[in-house]
């Protein structure tokens, strides 16, 4: 009887360890996946190109981050802040970029993940000239990002975005 209890206790501990390990792996995998930018086959710009083209009027640069992020780092010079979580995001985008779905619109976020996802969504919604800035404001595998590249930022005003 004693041997049976020991075997059952060991089996239960093993189950707990295995289930815990599987759960932890799922959490880590999910966190990793959320940080991976999807493949976007459309146009891409470096942060220096995005800044230059936004200042010259060649593209409309949209910072899709959140007000908390804008407050923390500022907004890239020449960018228009529009929080991508807005229910009326497309309408807000059109109020800045106009109603022409072929207008060149570049999207930037913190590290290029959200901008790639939003580039895919807007392209699927009929916008034909969406350009991703995969470095983002803070840098990514694509490059150092706007801030570390030393590009100018402006303080975010609460009335923006």
From TrEMBL:
Assigned keywords, A-Z: Membrane, Transmembrane, Transmembrane helix
> So where does this one cross the membrane?
16-33
Q: Indicate the segments forming the Rhodanese domain, all copies.
A: 55-155
Q: Does the entry feature the keyword Transcription, yes or no?
A: no
Q: Which Pfam families match?
A: Rhodanese (PF00581)
Q: Which residues form a coiled coil?
A: none
Name of the protein this chain belongs to: Rhodanese-like domain-containing protein
